[in-house]
C-alpha cells in the first residue's frame, strides 16, 4: 500500500499520567487540521474527536502496515485485525514531536551555556549522554589550544557559532598560528 497522505501532529500538550505521559494533540492530514487526539495516561487507547472516518481508515491501514512489519521482525504473524492500529501511527507522531521539542530545548540550553563555558567531550565519550566543560572560560583560541594540549586530538568541542560538536582539529583550524600569542 502506497501512503497517499502525510500526517503530523501539532499543539501537543503533555502531563504525567498514571500509566505514562498523558497528552492532547491536533492531528493534521496533508497540512490541514482534521481533528484532535487525546491519551489520558491511564492505559487503553487514544481517543479521537472530530476525525473523519476516511482519515481513521487510512490511519488504521498505515498502522496495520507498521504492525505487520514489526511482527515480521519478531518472527510472528499478523492476524489482520486493524482495531486500534491507528494509535500506533498517532502515538509515533506524538513521540517524534516531543523528541524534536526536547532536542530544540537542549540545543538552546547548550547555546546559552556555551556563552560562558567551553563544552567538550573526550575520545570515546558520547556528547548526547554527557559532556565536560571549563566553567567561566568562554570558547576561544586560548581554551582550544589548552584543551588540545591537555587531552589530545581525540577531543570534540561544542562550537557555539555552528551550534554543533566538532573535532578539536576543525574547531582550532581558524586559530592556527595564534598559539604563540595565546600562551
Topology (SSEs and partners):
Blueprint: E1 7-17, E2 20-29, E3 32-39, E4 47-49, H1 53-74, H2 86-114, E5 118-121, E6 132-134, H3 141-151, E7 156-159, E8 164-167, H4 168-172, H5 179-182
Antiparallel strand pairs: 1-2, 2-3, 3-4, 5-6, 5-7, 7-8
Helix pairs in contact: 1-2
Gist?
This protein is of the alpha+beta class. The chain is built from five helices and eight strands; from the N terminus they run ββββααββαββαα.
Topology as H/E string?
EEEEHHEEHEEHH
Number of structural domains: 2
Helix content: 25-40%
Would you report the number of β strands? 8
Read across the widest sheet, the strand sequence of neighbours is 1-2-3-4
Structural class: alpha+beta
- Sheet-strand content, in percent, reads 25-35%
Mean pLDDT equals: 89
Unreliable parts: none
Distance between the termini: 64 Å
- Assign an overall shape: elongated
> Treating each run of at least 4 consecutive H or I residues as one helix, how many helices?
5
The radius of gyration computed from the alpha-carbon positions, rounded to a whole number of angstroms, is 24 Å
Taking the sheet with the most strands, its summary is: 4 strands, antiparallel
Amino acid at each position: 500500500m502506497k501512503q497517499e497522505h502525510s500526517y503530523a501532529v501539532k499543539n501537543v500538550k503533555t502531563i504525567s499520567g498514571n500509566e505514562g505521559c498523558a497528552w492532547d494533540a491536533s492531528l493534521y492530514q496533508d497540512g490541514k487540521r482534521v481533528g484532535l487526539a487525546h491519551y489520558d495516561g491511564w492505559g487503553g487507547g487514544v481517543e479521537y474527536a472530530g476525525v473523519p472516518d476516511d482519515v481513521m481508515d487510512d490511519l488504521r491501514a498505515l498502522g496495520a502496515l507498521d504492525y505487520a512489519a514489526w511482527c515480521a521482525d519478531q518472527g510472528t504473524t499478523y492476524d489482520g485485525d486493524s482495531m486500534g492500529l491507528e494509535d500506533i501511527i498517532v502515538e509515533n507522531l506524538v513521540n517524534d514531536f516531543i523528541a524534536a521539542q526536547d532536542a530544540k530545548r537542549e540545543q538552546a540550553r547548550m547555546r546559552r551555556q556555551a556563552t560562558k563555558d567551553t563544552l567538550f567531550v573526550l575520545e570515546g565519550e558520547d556528547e548526547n549522554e554527557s559532556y565536560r566543560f571549563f566553567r567561566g572560560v568562554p570558547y576561544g583560541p586560548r581554551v582550544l589550544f589548552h584543551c588540545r594540549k591537555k587531552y589530545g586530538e581525540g577531543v570534540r568541542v561544542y562550537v557555539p557559532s555552528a551550534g554543533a560538536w566538532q573535532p578539536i582539529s576543525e574547531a582550532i583550524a581558524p586559530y592556527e598560528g595564534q598559539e604563540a600569542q595565546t600562551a
